[in-house]
Amino acid sequence: MSEHRRGPVRSEAARVAILDATARLFETRGYDHLTMEGIAAEAHVGKQTIYRWWPSKGALVADCLLEGLLFSEGFISPADTGDLRADLTAWLRGILGFVDREGGDTMVHSLIAAAGDHPSVGARLSEQLGANSLLHARFEAAVAAGQLSPDRPLDELGDALVGAVVLRALSRTPSDAAAAARLVDAVLG
């Protein structure tokens, strides 16, 4: 006897339309003004279709982020110009600048809430956007280039940088122009 899934079949075309609509609206309106109703209208689907697949706006935005639809590659992980300190500082400036933008901190809060409420969302975010995923390869390149001691705890260095961003977002602490450099200095010494 074959097992059948209950409920409507998930349409890949609808899923893609919803993710694309979310990314477009996020870019033009920002996270605070992103609504499930607006996404449904933009994607030409019913709001119930969105809620069937994503339990919250945060979970939907997390999927857009994980699919690479929201930010450029350089935003998600640091470049490798050969200068670890400069690369991490530029990367953190971009992220802190986003968090300081209207709705940036709210988006971070929402992603944290979605991860806390839905373990599968949290696991996917951690796997693809956790400090180890974002920074480990860059740290390994720095070790290979002699810019970072091989006995440094690479995972913990990344955790410290990403954790500092999360704490700033949660506390709504604005960053000044030198905040990224100070954080990098504190972590790298």
Structure notes:
With 189 residues, the protein is mainly α. Helix content is 69%, strand content 0%.
Helix and strand topology:
Layout: H1 12-29, H2 36-43, H3 47-53, H4 57-66, H5 73-76, H6 84-100, H7 104-117, H8 119-129, H9 131-144, H10 154-171, H11 179-188
Question: What is the average of the pLDDT values?
Answer: 85
Structural class, from helix and strand content?
mainly alpha
How much strand content do the residues show? under 5%
Helix content: 55-70%
* Tally of contiguous helical segments: 11
N- to C-terminal separation?
Answer: 63 Å
Along the chain, the helix and strand elements come as HHHHHHHHHHH
Tally of DSSP β-strands: 0
Mass-distribution shape: elongated
Major beta sheet, specifics? none
Say what oligomer this is. single chain
Residue stretches low in confidence (pLDDT < 50, at least 5 long) are: 1-5
Integer-rounded radius of gyration? 19 Å
